[in-house]
Sequence to fold (431 residues):
Amino acid sequence: MKLLSKPEYEREIARTRPERMDWWRKARYGMFIHYGLYSQEGRNEWLQTLENIPAGEYEAYAKTFAPKPGCCREWAALAKRAGMKYMVLTTRHHEGFSLWNSKANPYNSMNACGRDIVREFVDACREFGLKIGFYSSLMDWHHPDGGICAYDTAARRRFLDYIEALNTELLTNYGKIDILWYDVPAPMANWEGWDSLERNQRLRALQPHIIINNRSQLDEDFSTPEEHITATDRDWEACMTFNRISWGYIDSEQARPYCYNAQQIINMLNTCASGAGNLLLNIGPKPDGSVPEEVVEPLETVGRWLAENGSAVYGSKKRINNAFRGNGVSKVTQDDNYVYVWNMIWPKNGTMGFGGWLEAPKSVSFMDGTPIDFEHVGHRIILKNLPAEAPDKTAGVTVLRFEYDHTPDYRFASYYPQLNAGEDIAGQAKL
Fold:
């Protein structure tokens, strides 16, 4: 194949990006799975290097690696119940252990326990209608060239050939794959050292519709803020641990106090969707691959909430400034002719006000279509005759739908009460 220069390549992937990214931009919510040999110790997925375990000693974990039958199906079933639209699996983490029947890397699950976990994962995703993502570390602590490749050109060539062979297997042997999710481009410090421009072109030729993240030192299709949710001016996906301690499995009983609850996950979904980004929420399966107990109830609760309120999350959302929170206890998302107001704290007196709304909606309703009485006065919207308790009984987050007869170029403006409300307010910000 003819390889393109960097400017040519960037123009070409920009040309095809809207079509390739369309499903991802509407999905908004996915599950990250960190599973590997490290899961057996239950301390951290960086166990080998953080505890300075020699490679020969660490290899013993491969002899006791024993995922239970059906574990991948258990992950996918939970993701489906949680309202997630795609999954990303650590096919090979930094420890260098491949979860598939790799010819390029004999240090793999097939040789360890007779199982191709990647195949089982792919089959489970397809059974539950989930898009498929492969995480692929560039760093490798097990390969003899994984460290010296930074300063030994012969080692670098061998290591780069190894990395490409691994990813070629993944993108050749399992049918259509939707995401290639690189991680940790170390020890080389730039895309030139990794040959990312050339390798990614060859890999894209195997999967023309694939989307690739930005961790091979090229921008590619989307950025990946980690453990923080920060909107950017391009496509982005926040990857978040479930317990803010470890990506891999840690003891469920001790981890539970650090874990997100349903309301916190819903809040993260709002921050992502209002910034036109995605949430990739991680779970670290137990040593046998089963789902840790502490993640089940929050994820299932969010799934039930999304079944009723999903249109406020899914779909191509407008990137807005959520510094405007509706009324201090609410946040917003917007698409097409609708602004969705997510209320976290329900009023007790039957009324709720919103300041700074310059344009009146055509109607206001609950998500089931039940109309809400309102008036628009100056810059205020006042909802009336509201029920005494929050209508949302699943998570206590009630979404109100503001409908317009057009797609509003909407502006929210706030002002100091001592100013004349009839004056043109300076500093109005576009949503």
Notes: The chain has 13 helices and 16 strands. The chain has a mean pLDDT of 94. The longest helix spans residues 6-27.
